[in-house]
Amino acid sequence: MAIASTIRPCCSHLFLSQIIPKYPYNFSKSQKCPHRYEVVAQAASTAPAPNPTRDPVRSTGSVTPPHILLQGLKPLVFTPLLPFPEKTRPVDPVRHEPIPRTKSVAEREAWKLLNQAVVNYCGKPVGTVAAADAGAFKGELLNYDQVFIRDFVPSALAFLLKGETEIVRNFLLHTLQLQSWEKTVDCYSPGQGLMPASFKVRTAPIDGNADAEEEVLDPDFGESAIGRVAPVDSGLWWIILLRAYGKITGDFSLHERVDVQTGIKLILNLCLSDGFDMFPTLLVTDGSCMIDRRMGIHGHPLEIQSLFYSALRCAREMLTFNEGSANLIRAIKSRLSALSFHVREYYWVDLKKLNEIYRYKTEEYSQNATNKFNIYPEQIPAWLVDWIPDRGGYLIGNVQPAHMDFRFFSLGNLWAIASSLTTPKQAEGILSLIEEKWDDLIGTMPLKISYPALESDEWRITTGSDPKNTPWSYHNGGSWPTLLWQFTLACIKMGRPDLAQRAISTAEKRLLDDNWPEYYDTPTGRFVGKQSRLYQTWTVAGFLTSKLLLEKPELASILTFEEDLELLEGCACRLSRNGRTRCSRQAARSQLLGNCA
């Protein structure tokens, strides 16, 4: 495909309205819609004291709409977190300001590498390359010199948490522009809402002037990827990052732009389109997420479901309610409720549930069947029987008719905690299992992308004898340091920052000495990966984001969600004997939080 058909020059109008307010916020009810709240700038000295009965405002400046403020429940947070609250530190006696924490050698090196990885377009920063030594491995350039949406997320968070917001805004707007590009593979065009996996800044001749050149963006929607797989998770990560940007900067004008609202709707319409599937989970092919090679995750992989749930909650918060979006918002709420129930009920495994599966009857033809997916007890792998601890559990990797993938996938479990896709007890159980199985899942380098590895005939059949995904390497049981920031996020949300600090301490010195590899091999992560790029940007950024989140744990809420009883009403109905009855939020609270663990 010619470059001219897939790229366009930069547009200066993208960079208007980049002034970020520097003051705290109060909120007022919008006159346009009773369910929407708008930001109203007001100096802190003149801000009226909040009335908890009429306008419940928390000490951080966040607002809980009265229709969801329930007695005895933690209010939901919809608002920016400026100004950043300072942690208690020694105070400079001259300047009367907190003394900044001294950065470690690894942190200073990481910031240097991250800044060097920044990619500029038309004089503006728009992202970071995947790896600094992109062509150092056997002269193979591949696509490590491109800006990947999923890879840029930890970089974006590191910049946001440091107060550098321009690069994130530019990235969000330019990738949104790429969403509408023509994308064709073998005469077939995928849905309009598809976001690119990556893009590269190139120079191209200006039309009509062979002597002049301009910078252009060249996106890859999967038509150049190994296996030609569309990146399902790109659009989900984009929505999650958009919400985080708004909450940390207070720049909600970006959310309200017509092109941004349209972009959100296109992504969701693609995800929520009708099909033949009977389940609320998103059906995808192998290789459509971080695990982008054949690894037997086709169907309904947990990683996609966790990101899908989080993106739906983000979109529900950001979409402007009007006549054009009303049906979509209702569809989002309905899907969230069904997806929450489905994952909590059918993906969760602990010792009790495993014993229940072991005693399953098969070939049940009934609407009241216990073994709804006709799972044969012989599918329980031998390693799991002795591995699963007495305390704790996890969400398995995949559930579909006559198939359960019992492998532990870190990203899906950690993001399920962050987004409250799990119940609170399930979230505690996942962290308990990680703590109990620390040597297996963390080892000498956090964090296993999946556990255990596929070996022997299982590896040959499942991966097609993939030479990169050999046992305990790459996606097949490899250790990925970039997962540190998601582990830290989950630990902070559950009040266990000690676990995150323990993992970061394990990784810090080795990452610096080993030149920030992409991944590690062997069951305990002792070797740098055999095909691992060095100076991998999301390894660097994941480490920095973990450090910043531990330093300011209150900022973790830009990415997390608390339990929403409005969504659980439908879920409680599904647990009742008569799923057609209408449930109250009190029933949702007592039944879901009490019984779905």
TrEMBL record:
GO terms for molecular function: endo-alpha-N-acetylgalactosaminidase activity; sucrose alpha-glucosidase activity. GO terms for biological process: sucrose catabolic process. It catalyses: Hydrolysis of terminal non-reducing beta-D-fructofuranoside residues in beta-D-fructofuranosides. Signal peptide: none annotated. Its EC number is 3.2.1.26. One of its GO terms (cellular component) is mitochondrion. Belongs to the glycosyl hydrolase 100 family. Invertase that cleaves sucrose into glucose and fructose. This is Alkaline/neutral invertase. It comes from Rhynchospora tenuis. The lineage of its organism: Eukaryota, Viridiplantae, Streptophyta, Embryophyta, Tracheophyta.
